[in-house]
Amino acid sequence: MEYLIHLAILFLIYAILGISLNLIVGYTGLLSVTHAAFYGIGAYTTAILLTKGEIDFFVSVLLGIIIAIIISFLIGIVLSKFRGDYYALGSLGLNTIIFSIFLNWNNLTRGPLGIPGIARPELFGIDFTENINFLILVFIFFTLVFMLSHFIVNSSFGRVLKAIREDENTIQIFGYNTLYFKLAIFIISAAMAAIAGSLLASYITFIDPSSFVLMESIFIVAIIILGGLANLRGSILGALILILLPEALRFVGFPADIAAQMRQMVYGVILILLMLYRPQGLIGEYKL
Amino acid sequence: MAILETKNLTKNFDGIRAVDNLSIKIERGKVSGIIGPNGSGKTTLINLLSGVLQADKGVIVLSDSIKLTKIKPHTIASYGITRTFQDVRLFNQMTILDNILVVLTERNFWSAILEQHKDYHLDQAGDILKQLDLWDKRTELVVNLSYGQRKLLEIGRALAMKADIYLLDEPFAGLFPEMRKIVSGIIHKLREENKAIVLIEHNMDIIRELSDHVIVMDEGKLLAQGKPKEVLDRREVIEAYLGE
Questions:
Q1: In chain B, whose CA is at the least distance from the CA of A162?
Q2: Over the stretch A37-54, which tens digit does the pLDDT of each residue have?
Q3: DSSP label at A118?
Q4: Can you give the pTM of this predicted structure?
């Protein structure tokens, strides 16, 4: 049972990441590979505040969101001027820069040693040290992120995002300053990723920079491409499959020493097959 | 009084003068037909008037007072100018209804986040789509439409803007006769509503039927202008068009 709860928590954390990234990639058509950076910002904010100060977990989540908003605003001002391949390359560079900060700012992040001993939250006498309680907490955050995203994509704002994805030059002619729309969704998405990071830090109780490398951003992109671009449920489906798949592969009997590599290979093969036969993902509404 | 006027408008592309010292006037309640051979600068002119391109020289003046020079594309709609494109530019992986709704709603992103589907938006979109005979297909993706239907939808999107000036770049090209009737009816109605219509068209019968004023361009320059009867039979116009 503990094992299933563990998987459910990881699945929901990645579902938050997938939903939030889908707002940028699926709905706005901007291939961002910098999501792990904001995931990391949330995780490090919570980790540092909980280990160095007497700050409540929920306050640390809020501060993680605020820091992600500030950094995504600064990054987004530059990034929102790009589109297409340039956007992807720019975001790739930014993920690498932020990862380097996690790795090298030893005084703050302890560099490659990581930060251990991150506490689980407590609220109104409920102790979230119990995994089942933590699952409920993650589910609440997941629901909030899903509902907010659902509201956004069904608003006029969401419709403009889709139009930007389809033809940015044309929607500008009809009176929309697309730069602000791209910047706004980038910030919203980054804030949601920071929530996922805070949850991860508190759940695992240890973080190090290796969790926020470029490959992690690509993994989140893989989640939404697999599940479906421009479909929030697709992000959830993608997270479910890609979190459960390696667990299922345990029972296939891959030798333990190559299991991790096999997982990467399976991701790769799935993505290639999808691009060939179903470029919009399993339940997606948009083709890259 | 001209609602839109160009004064000595000039645009170069790598040394090629696409629009050359062009001075024209567009008036309310009139259809201004723009004709000329391929490459004469008609679409470049529309791109300049709609803020897609910036002029190298000259000015565009709105309502005798507002200079539309160095304006950004996203601001052009606020001056009451809208357009269609020669190569249809719709939002292909969106529904037909959403292609109309997207231009009916809030421009400010904070307001847009808070704005959900409203009945009055749907009613407006419905009126337009019914007029274009596309209402029954409203939930289909644009990518599934025929060329003619796409052309109609693009005109519908321009209508939804409730603009003062409509820049229509070859709206009749590739349409079946019944679709031409719909577009023709729309243009007549816009003229009755005292809107200014700029119509680029190659079909001289359509120009004769719809235009109140014809502007002939050749190699970026103004070759002739006036009433269709006076202009279309002039020798230099026929020569420029037919190369005779």
A1: B94
A2: 999 999 999 999 999 877
A3: P
A4: 0.91
